[in-house]
Amino acid sequence: MKRSALFTQAKCLSVLSLGACVVFTLAGCDTLNDWLAPDRVNYKAAETAPNLAVPSDLSTADISQRYAAPPAVNTLGSTVARTKTPQGNLTLGVPTDKDPLGMHVEVDGDRRWLVVDGRTPDQVWPQLQEFWAENGFTLKTDSPQTGIMSTDWAENRANIPNDWFRKSIGKLLDFAYSSGTRDMFRTQVDRASDGSTDISVTHSAMEEVLTGQDKTSSKWETRPRNPQLEAVIMQKIMQKFGLTETQSVQLIKQARPAGAKVAVNQSGGTSTLDLAEPFDRAWLRVGLALDRTNFTVDNRNRDKGIYYVHYSDSMADLKKEGLFGKFFSSNTAMPTRQFLVNVKPKADTLTQVGVVDANGQPDTSSDAQRIVSLLHAQLN
Which domains does the chain have, with CATH numbers? Predict the structure, then answer.
C-alpha cells in the first residue's frame, strides 16, 4: 500500500485515538474475495486525493479551442427514447433479432468495442458525458466533432487497501492516503454504415515510484494499459445504456471476433497496408491501434480519412522498451513533428492505410515507414 507524504504526520496525530476506535472498526473488515474482485473501481472519491503534479515529460498534448464542447444551449439532439428488450428492461440501443439487447461487443485480440444498434454518435454522446461525470471524472477533451472524449488523470480509490489502521483512524485523514496510481480513459465514438455506433475505451496509466537511496522522493512513470479495466468500464457504460450487470457481463463474454488480414504493399520506397475489410471497420481499427501505441491523436477527419498524430513524450522514460522501441533504436531520435495517417477505401471490402504528407502524397521519410510497420504489428 502506498501513502502520501502526509501519512507520517497523520499517523502521529491519530495514534492517541487508536485504542478507543480499533475495537469498533476491526469488525468491519472486507473479505479477501471482495478486495480481489476484478471490477472494484471507485473514482468518485478521487477529489479527496492530493492533486497530481504531472512532470513535464508526462504532460498531455495541449487541446485547442476547436476541441471544446459545444455550449449547453447547443444540444446534440433531444433525449433518445429507450426501447424495451425481450427481458423487459429499457435500453438505449434498438433491439433486433440478432441483438436482442440492442447492442453487442466485438473483439480483436485484447481490443474491444461496443456496437450500439440504431443510434448515431450524436445520440449517444450526452449519455457518455453523463457517464464519466457520474463516475467522478473530469473531461479534458470533449469533442463530438472529432468523436474523441478523454478524461483527466484520476485515482482509483478502491486500490487503497482498507487495512486496520485506515479502518480505525485513517478515514478521518483519508487525504493522507494514495494508491500511487493514476488512470486516464480515452473514448472514441464512430458511426458505422449500417446506422449503428461504435464506442471504444482505451486506458492509460501512471504509477508513483519511490527513488533515491532513502526512498524519500518519487517520480511518475507510465505503466501498461489494463484491458481488464477497459472491459469493466465498458460494462458500466452498457449499464448506463440500460442493461443489467448480468447482461453487460454476458455481452463481454460473448464478444464477437472481428478483424481481417493485413497485407503490406511496398512501392516506390514507401509501404502501405491493405486491410481486407470495409472503410468503417478499418477506420475504427486503425484508431484503436494508434490509441495503443506511443502516438497521440491530435485530431481526425473521417471524411478525408486522416488521423493527425504526434509522438507522445510520455513514454520517453521507458527507455524505448516494448514494441515501439523495436522500431526506433537507441541511435534513432524520436520524431517530434505531426504525422498524417491516411485511411482510404480501395474497394467495398478493401481499405488502404499509409502515412501521407500535407499534400496528400506518400510520406517517404523513415519515421513514416516505421509508423506503418508499427501499425502492421498492432493490427496483426
Answer: 7-54+158-176 (no CATH), 55-156+177-257 (no CATH), 259-380 (3.30.310.170)
